[in-house]
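B., you asked whether I could sanity-check this one before it goes into the benchmark set. Here's the sequence:
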Amino acid sequence: MAGGGGDDSGDEKPLWKQILAVSFFIIFNIALNEFNSWALTKDRWPGFHFPYFYTMFHMIVSVSASFLLQWLVIKPKLGGPTFQQLWDYKQLLIPMGICTFLTNGLNNESLSLMTLFLNQAIKATLPMPIMLFSFLFAKKTYSAFLMFVVFFLCLGSVLSVSYKFAHNQGGSEIAGVVMCVVGMLAASIKPVLVMMLTSGLQGDITKLEPIVVLVYDSGIAFTLMLITWLCLDERQESIAYLSEPDTRAIGIIIIAIGSTMAFAFNLSNFYFITLTTALTAAVGGSGVKVLLILVSAVQAGVADPVSWCGIGTVIISLCVYTYLTLENRKPPAPDKEDTDKRVMETTPLVKP
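And here's what the prediction gave me:
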């Protein structure tokens, strides 16, 4: 959500609120990624590698957060979510929930098999599939220069992990890469579906408010994760983990902390969008990506020059991409003749 928000309506928000919104968004975004990477790593303590079981609680928290926002902050014009509304919008809501299920579930599962740096390097290429699916489904077009920048973004991501792949001895990270890529593709389809739901692009349906869409999104994703958890070996393993006296406490702590941070991130994400301008939202979103890539690269012990050249290319490309997308959002300058005409029309007549 962070990249696409911002309030440029002209209402000045207090500076201290904007600073708090940006600070909490950055802190909880980075903290949640770091915490998930630590908790879900398979061959290291605490070994809580139950991504679907773990992410189910995040979905429950997301639903709770959206209902809380509707109760305290936003009153949906069409009312709260209903089963009839879900059925009426099923062609968009169900695919959106499936995308969230794949994005969060596979991303968290990939973190148990790969480093956070590799995960972030792959996810940095997200603008490429977003552009592709926006063109295919929403008929949105892009300039040649923007596509060139996205190509260099992908090239930099490949270079940043080339040394690591050349020296990788196991196949677990390859499986993690596949999961991360599939999750990223699902994440790139979801914004198009959300845009169609909240902007009324379908034409024959009334647009829904984002806070209502979040309830359906998280609810459908939770249902799919629950079914997946029940069908996998993870069900027995997670129950055994929580039943074991030596690991029960740390398991409950991981679930509690992860869910609390997910709740805090959802709230900070909402206020980050509503209290800041489009410029702040876009720069802040890209800034978090840059920070995560740099921090995770240091943690992964990246030292070779090729990888750092790739990281530098990714950072520069992200900055240029953010600038170009902001330029595209600016309304076109008014025509001079129209401006002169409006000035003449608003000039009061001279009384005789």
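One thing to flag: Residues 208 and 294 are 37 Å apart (CA to CA). Otherwise nothing jumped out at me.
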